[in-house]
Design a protein that fits this description.
It is built from 14 helices and 15 strands. The chain is α+β, with helices and mostly antiparallel strands. The protein has a domain of 239 residues: Aminopeptidase (3-Layer(aba) Sandwich), CATH 3.40.630. A hairpin with a 5-residue loop joins strand 13 and strand 14. It catalyses: an N-terminal L-alpha-aminoacyl-[protein] + L-arginyl-tRNA(Arg) = an N-terminal L-arginyl-L-aminoacyl-[protein] + tRNA(Arg) + H(+). This is Arginyl-tRNA--protein transferase 1. Involved in the post-translational conjugation of arginine to the N-terminal aspartate or glutamate of a protein. This arginylation is required for degradation of the protein via the ubiquitin pathway.
């Protein structure tokens, strides 16, 4: 049987990695000894995130920098001009090994953080200042539990209660892409000058056409405009990214490996060396020891599960390694969950900053979602962690089309529109659901207490009503708080450790 076992710590305060305030980042945390991918999917859909085994949820009404869960609908994602430019830069480099004329300047600017956040491509798809700097796990001794013994005991039917069933996924009608009809600006929308100053700029394509017509007129030739056949549809993200040719000078290859596989530990010396270089040159931080690196980016509570109707590699925690020829140049740390690919962290070789690897990796991860969705239709979202509007450096996450923010009260999804941005400009905490009567469908109430599952020893778990009779101490307030944060289905499904 698959279980999630958590040790709830309650309210936590820590240094904020965004505003750099001390003891002003406020939320609640818990340690996950083991967790099913389904349970973690439901947790992040309630505003939780993990850093190693530590799971945390910010209290947006009290914390200094409210954290809003953000996701992108990968099947409705549209490439922007800047995305296409970055992909073309990479493809050009792979083709002939040459850097563009502005790449050297870009390389130097990308390794410095500008206060206005204009050059934050290096941070695309990680937690900006580094997830480990945002919320730190409390220094609490872990309880000694034998997961294998517990699993074997419950497989033999020794547990007091059967694990409740898993609810079917819900669809949300709010998730229709409303952004596709916005921002359809054309050059004709620009203001016309009535005083003759600053005439509207012309597109390069229009200027080339005018020059060609002028040359034809100078030669006495009739003005002929070639009507090229229109393309039936624009190239897809996959076609843009995978434009490699056999004679390209460089080859970019990818390896997706599970964090507990032999391949991971075989490549550990390389990945750790790359991580140290990234931390030192990009974040200006002293590199972590190898064990801290493993705690942060390798160790995960997620169990590798391979259902017959799931993705080929299964659900769990993975590293996507980028190899330029035979050299490791980047690593994306991701979780593959029932409905999404969740980005955890990304680090790369600073020598290749001119390739905008942060943004490029996000596009590659969206492509991964699109590929997985062709096999598992429900797996169609790309989760980017948190959108922190009060920190200008973190607003880049909202630039991906078809992006949605999670309402921190009703837990419904809402398109990240200009209207929402204006509201966040006015007040950093917002309830995105405008319906005052809309409530959390999985709201936990006092009447749900009796069905909360508590793990009481190495072989069994009981419901809360039984625990009160056995222990004589109910921990009522802490369990109610926990239930409200994780929601009723998870409170009735996960095991709350009380050993």
């Amino acid at each position: 049987m698959d279980f999630t076992i958590v040790d709830y710590y309650g309210p936590q305060k820590s240094k904020c990695g965004y505003c750099k305030g001390v003891q002003c980042s406020m939320g609640c945390g818990m340690h996950a000894y083991t967790m099913t991918p389904k349970d973690y999917q439901d947790l992040i859909d309630r505003g939780w995130r993990r850093s190693g085994h530590y799971c945390y949820k910010q209290d947006n009404t009290k914390t200094c920098c409210p954290h809003y869960t953000i996701k992108c609908d990968a099947l409705n994602f549209k490439l922007s001009k800047s995305h296409k430019k970055i992909i073309k830069r990479m493809n050009r480099f792979l083709r002939d090994g040459k850097r563009g004329k502005n790449d050297e300047e870009l390389n130097s600017s990308m390794t410095s953080e500008k206060p206005d956040g204009e050059n934050m491509e290096v941070e695309m798809n990680n937690e900006g200042c580094g997830i480990r700097d945002v919320v730190e796990a409390p220094n609490v001794p872990l309880k000694n539990i034998n997961l294998e013994a517990f699993a074997k005991a419950n497989e033999k039917g020794k547990s007091n209660e059967k694990q409740p069933g898993v609810q079917k996924p819900k669809t949300n009608a709010m998730e229709i892409d409303k952004n596709s009809t916005q921002n359809n600006e054309t050059p004709n929308n620009s203001k016309n000058s009535t005083d003759g100053a600053n005439p509207p700029c012309k597109k390069a394509k229009q200027m080339r056409l005018e020059r060609r017509l002028a040359k034809q007129a100078a030669k006495g030739l009739p003005a002929v405009i070639e009507n090229k056949p229109s393309k039936s549809q624009e190239k897809s993200l996959k076609e843009f990214l995978n434009d490699a040719k056999p004679d390209d000078k460089h080859k970019l290859n990818f390896e997706l490996i599970h964090v507990k596989s032999k391949e991971f530990f075989k490549t550990l010396p390389m990945t750790y060396a790359l991580y140290k270089k990234y931390q030192t040159l990009i974040h200006k931080d002293p590199p972590n020891a190898e064990q801290e690196y493993l705690d942060f980016l390798q160790r995960s509570p997620l169990k590798l599960t391979k259902p017959s109707d799931g993705p080929p590699l299964g659900y769990g925690s993975f590293h996507q390694q980028y190899y330029l020829d035979d050299q490791l140049i980047a690593v994306a740390v991701i979780d593959i969950l029932p409905y999404c690919v969740s980005s955890v962290y990304f680090f790369y070789d600073p020598d290749y900053s001119f390739l905008s690897l942060g943004t490029y990796s996000s596009l590659r991860e969206i492509e991964l979602v699109q590929d997985l969705a062709s096999k598992v239709p429900a797996l169609k979202y790309y989760y980017m962690g948190f959108y922190i509007h009060s920190c200008p450096k973190m607003r880049y996450k909202g630039k991906l089309s078809a992006s949605y923010l999670l309402c921190p009260e009703a837990y419904t999804w809402h398109p990240l529109s200009d209207e929402i941005r204006l509201k966040l400009d006015a007040n950093k905490y917002q309830r995105f659901n405008d319906d005052p009567l809309a409530r959390d469908e999985n709201e936990f109430e006092e009447s749900d207490m009796d069905l909360v599952l508590l793990m009481i020893d190495q072989s069994s778990y009981v419901k809360y009503r039984q625990y009160r009779q056995i222990a004589g101490s109910d921990d009522h307030a802490a369990i109610v708080e926990y239930g409200k944060l994780v929601g009723k289905p998870l409170a009735h499904r996960m095991l709350y450790l009380k050993m």
